Amino acid sequence: MSQFKLDPMIIVLFLLIIGMVWMMTKQRKSQREAQNFVDSLEPGQEVMTLAGYVGTIVSIDDHYIVLESVPGGAQTKWVKAAIRKPGAGVPGVPQQAATETAADVEIPDNVAKLIGEDTSIVDKHTDTTEHNKRENDK
């Protein structure tokens, strides 16, 4: 009886081939899903591009999609392949924060107030009332 012996190099080569086939199958599946997503796009849908631009689809043709970031705003033309995923707003930013208006945001006189530092020295040198008096006296 002869014993069957496998060379370790053949085992390694076999495992590499199996890994490559598995990775190619996974990549093909991902490409198919991306293509199905792009084919299912319709005007009025919100999407995000690879560059991070979030907008609503205005029109679609064979190769391009026209997006606008705000209703009635500027429109930009994108290649269909640049559309990455549905845009449910900006990732990581709650919808409440995105709807704040400029009136809701307090803008400090200087940056030191944002980080809680003592601003008395800065305020003394940047007092605008004294500056305005000097300008009016001229």
Automatic annotation (TrEMBL):
Organism: Rarobacter incanus
Start-end of Basic and acidic residues biased regions: 121-138
Predominant localisation class: membrane
Family in the record: Belongs to the YajC family.
Pfam families the UniProt entry points to: YajC
Lineage: superkingdom: Bacteria
InterPro entries: Preprotein_translocase_YajC
Protein name from the UniProt record: Preprotein translocase YajC subunit
Membrane topology: Single-pass membrane protein
UniProt GO cellular component terms: plasma membrane
UniProt record, GO biological process: protein transport
Keyword field contains Cell membrane: yes
Regions crossing the membrane: 6-25
Keywords from the named record: Cell membrane, Membrane, Protein transport, Translocation, Transmembrane, Transmembrane helix, Transport
Subcellular location: Cell membrane
Region feature Disordered, mapped onto this chain: 117-138
